[in-house]
Design brief:
This protein is of the alpha/beta class. The protein has a domain at 1-124 and 451-519: P-loop containing nucleotide triphosphate hydrolases (Rossmann fold). It contains 19 helices and 15 strands. The chain has helices spanning 35-45, 73-82, 114-121, 139-150, 153-176, 180-200, 206-218, 220-235, 242-259, 264-290, 295-315, 322-337, 339-385, 425-428, 431-446, 465-479, 491-494, 521-533, 539-550; strands at 2-10, 13-19, 23-28, 61-68, 91-98, 103-107, 110-112, 125-128, 392-403, 406-415, 423-424, 453-457, 483-487, 499-508, 511-518. It has a 6-stranded antiparallel sheet with strand order 2-1-4-5-6-7. The protein has a 6-stranded mixed sheet with strand order 8-12-13-3-14-15, sandwiched between helices. Strands 9-10-11 form a 3-stranded antiparallel sheet. The longest helix is centred in the middle third of the chain and has 47 residues, at 339-385.
Length: 551
């Protein structure tokens, strides 16, 4: 449930904090006062696409923060899936916007991405805006409603994975059936390229090893000089090097240790150093004896580098990727050479994958048809409550070819008046009917939805009178199971609110400010009277508003 929303520098809102509660929360205000800005801020928290134009004029940054409390198990599961801690029952989501276009998002105080906000918000908030009613014109949304209501998600995911495998095999089969001349041309090219790579016999890490060897050969004189210098410092001339000095020091400490055992550890250390230095000196001598300028080997390395550079440029990859590329070419070549055998195997695999996908699609279709009848019936009853007493809603199924959504094309046909044949929503539904149909659908879906916060942005578009009151009663009913936020222009809906917020626009010192205020009883009476009576609030409007609140 959305507990607190903090908004800073979003459009005409400089700073505001809104504390919401469980139940029906209504937001009202004059047209243009900034009600839509509240929804924009919530959309930002939900990870929706947000333009930098939303940032308040003259400011470089904007910020939105939302606190959710009593988060349900689905939210905690989503948090774990995204890699966040899910132990607390309170969750804070933040998003900062900048004029540079950079977004900074946080979930529970930890850095997040906009995509993470979008994924998590599906389990936190469900928004129905004015434009969404017109999505009813798209039959794709009808299928989505039925899948959501019928709990078809898991089966749909299983089908889509099967369908994906079928399409992959189908693509391979189509490639196998391509023009014979193209196959022969590819065989010829692959034979040449794979032979070139296998003859080159490039090894992983070879370039680094060659570079080290080349560096050593090119610096032969410097290395020889440094090694001889090191040996001289250790062995010296006429036995006066470092090793001899350490040996003398070790002998002296051994003698001292015979008189005082406290020097024994230091004596042992010097003795160990002496033997270590002897080993180092011998290793340096061996290295000097093994030094070889070998200009022929240096030339071989340069030629090898030329080959590696040519191959990496030709195949647009690193030298370490060339062995794998050679294997891939060889595998593809064998596929093409064994065309008939592979084609027969592909046909069998493709047919099996299609049969599996078709079986799952039919299973999914049956589940959808069963859910659609119940769903349509429940939506119809909700619409009848919303002052559409004669409405009929019929789910019409049409079988299609296999697609990512299965084999179903579904359309909810509607008849709003007696005697009318149910027809597509786009052909007969008015704005008010669309709004009530969408509210009815949201109400039915809320029965199987675990989202705690529902937001309705001007769901009252195109309705008034008793229909508006029925919409308010339905919102009130839905809010009993969780939290509903509603932006409205209808007094009948606002009067039913558990909590009423006024969105008020003011001008101070040439700047516009929007202020959000929770209204007490008297302030609610005045606001309802304004909605009822307009600019000139009469005593009759006030009395009517008082009556609405007390009824």
């Amino acid at each position: 449930m959305l507990k607190t929303l903090y908004i800073e520098n979003i459009a005409v809102i400089e700073k505001t904090t809104i504390d919401f509660s469980r139940g029906l929360n209504v937001l009202t205000g004059e047209t243009g006062a900034g009600k839509s800005i509240i929804i924009d801020a919530i959309n930002a928290i939900m990870g929706q696409r947000t333009s930098k134009d939303i940032i308040r004029t003259g400011e470089s940054n904007a910020f939105v923060s939302a606190v959710f409390e009593d988060v349900n198990p689905s939210v905690k599961a989503a948090l774990e899936e995204l890699g966040f801690d899910s132990d607390d029952d309170e969750l804070i989501i933040q998003r900062a916007l900048s004029q540079s276009g950079k977004n900074t998002c946080k979930i529970g105080g930890r850095p997040a991405t906009v995509a993470m906000l979008r994924e998590l918000s599906r389990h936190l908030i469900n928004i129905h805006g004015q434009h969404e009613s017109y999505e009813l014109f798209s039959t794709d949304t009808h299928l989505g409603y039925i899948d959501s209501y019928g709990g078809c998600g898991e089966l749909l995911d299983e089908y889509r994975e099967s369908y994906k495998q079928f399409k992959i095999l189908q693509k391979k089969l189509n490639e196998a059936n391509s023009d014979e001349s193209e196959r022969l041309r590819e065989i010829d090219l692959l034979q040449f390229q794979s032979q070139e790579l296998f003859e080159a016999d490039v090894q992983i890490g070879e370039e680094e090893r060659l570079e080290a060897e080349r560096t050593s050969l090119m610096n032969f004189e410097k290395i020889s000089s440094l090694l001889n210098k090191a040996r001289l410092m250790l062995d010296g001339e006429d036995s006066d090097g470092g090793i001899e000095s350490v040996d003398i020091a070790a002998s002296a400490m051994q003698s001292a240790a015979r008189y005082d055992s406290g020097y024994e550890e230091l004596s042992n250390s010097l003795t160990d150093i002496y033997y270590n230095l002897r080993d180092c000196a011998e290793s340096i001598s061996d290295a000097i004896d093994n030094l070889d300028s070998d200009p022929e080997r240096l030339e071989e390395i340069e030629e090898r580098f030329d080959l590696l550079n040519r191959l990496t440029r030709k195949y647009n990859c690193t030298s370490d990727e060339l062995p794998a590329l050679a294997e891939q070419m060889q595998t593809r070549l064998e596929e093409l050479l064994n065309y008939d055998k592979n084609r027969d195997e592909l046909i069998a695999a493709c047919e099996a994958a299609k049969a599996n996908a078709s079986a799952l699609a039919q299973k999914l279709s049956e589940k959808r048809k069963e859910a659609a009848l119940t769903f349509a019936g429940k939506v119809r009853e909700e619409m009848r409550f919303l002052n559409m007493p004669n409405v009929e809603l019929v789910p019409q199924f049409q079988e299609t070819e296999l697609s990512p959504d299965g084999v179903d094309k579904v359309e909810l046909l509607i008849s709003a008046n007696p005697g009318e044949t149910p027809r597509p929503v786009a052909k007969i539904a008015s704005g008010g009917e669309l709004s009530r149909m969408m509210l009815a659908i949201k109400t039915v879906l809320s029965e199987s939805d675990d989202v705690d916060t529902l937001i309705f942005d001007e769901v009252d578009t195109g309705i008034s009178g008793s229909a508006a009151e029925k919409v308010g009663l339905k919102l009130k009913e839905v809010s009993r199971a969780g939290q509903v936020l509603c932006v409205t222009h209808q007094a009948q809906i606002a009067a039913l609110a558990d909590f009423h917020y006024l969105i008020d626009k003011r001008v101070e010192q040439g700047r516009t400010f929007t202020v959000v205020t929770e209204l007490d009883h008297d302030a609610r009476v005045n606001e309802l009277a304004r909605i009822i009576g307009g600019v000139n609030i009469t005593q009759a409007a006030i009395s009517h508003a008082e009556e609405m609140l007390n009824s």
